[in-house]
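Problem 12. The chain below contains 450 residues. Write out its predicted structure in token notation.
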Amino acid sequence: MVTVACLAAALQPLLTTVADAAARESGMIERQGKVTGATFVQTLVFGWLGRPDASLSQLAQVAATCGLPISPQGLDARFTAAAATCLKTVLAAAMRQVLAAAPVALPVLRRFTGVSVWDSTTVTLPDALAAVWPGCGGRVATHTRAALKVQVRWELTTGALELAEVQAGRASDRAAADRAAPLPAGALRLTDLGYVSLARLSDLTAQGVFVLCRLPAHVAVFDGRGRRWTAAALLNRQGGATVDLPVTLGVAERTPVRLVARRVAPAVAARRRRAWRTAAKREGRAVSRERLALADWDASITTVPTAQLSATEALTLVRARWQVELLFKLWKSHGRIDEWRSGQPWRILCEVYAKLLAMLIQHWCLLLRCWADPARSLVKAAAVVRQHALILATARGQQRRLQAALTTLREALAAAGRLTTRRARPSTAHLLLALGAADPVPHQAECLAA
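Solution.
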């Protein structure tokens, strides 16, 4: 379980010795001067953590707090390719550390040895950075040639956040997930369709890892008698609003799974079809008949046995995958990792790296006090962390001062707000709490430093 001492022990070397070494190795610092790797990293991370839209003048004020007297113009001159390399090195060092909180009080999650969500977020960069981070290209002439992607594996029981090495925007999501460290037997992997293949599904089953994800629209489905169906046709043949069927997927693979689904209201299905057609028209393509037919259903596949997770529980738990989308929204809407106030490419790249590092540190801080309460609001708690960014900056990476600042932050987080209870559209946390399930497999969390 992460503690103030544990977090301070992770932050102190990262913001001092690691940053200084990265500055020397990158060539950013060639001789001893007033600017060091530590003061430079601390200035940018805590400056943009506290004010994601901070100007050079405001960053210079934070620099003075960190023990670096420098003018806005002097700071601007430091945004070079070497500085970007320095920040990237410090970010990579932070990504190798994993901190975990006490398990959240959701019994349904603790039936597994872990519940992990895989997803990625992309930051579009200026075309001038295409040689550093190649993008996917597109139909427009600008702002498509360069992008970077961050892969995230988030353990929802303990809040442990693993970030894979930053990769080019054109890189494959599935390949990045396949290179990650394996999950323990008995873990549940909540994933998006971009990370699913029938071969991978079979491999995970052989490893004792469970999977829960949305049903792919175009996969071949075979019932218990070996008859082939489209998914929508098979679901429409069933009676009742909720379906739980053993099926196999794939003409060649014949991967065994449970097909769990719930029929939605006609108005919901109609809204989905309109949204899909609008998106397809914008992208110059058509929506397949198979996908349009599935609009009538919330349909998922899982390898978890029925005795461990009912259809109703599975259809509720699959919603938890969207928590990672809310995390990315927190990073982009509030942390503004994809916004900047400059057109200078290397300054932009420095800002992206520093803000990603700030978001990781912010997440570690949230684990100090918020995680055990499933109804906590990460948005409200993150606002508390931003308010304390300058206090953390005054610690200057010193262990005792960091511990004092983190203790103050932990107490402030205790007063952070909770999710608003909504009768019409309850949050995922409230729906999971309402399941009221037993906890046959307790899961213990630890503070890990890899």
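Discussion. The chain has a mean pLDDT of 90. Students who got a different answer should revisit the alignment rule from Section 12.3.
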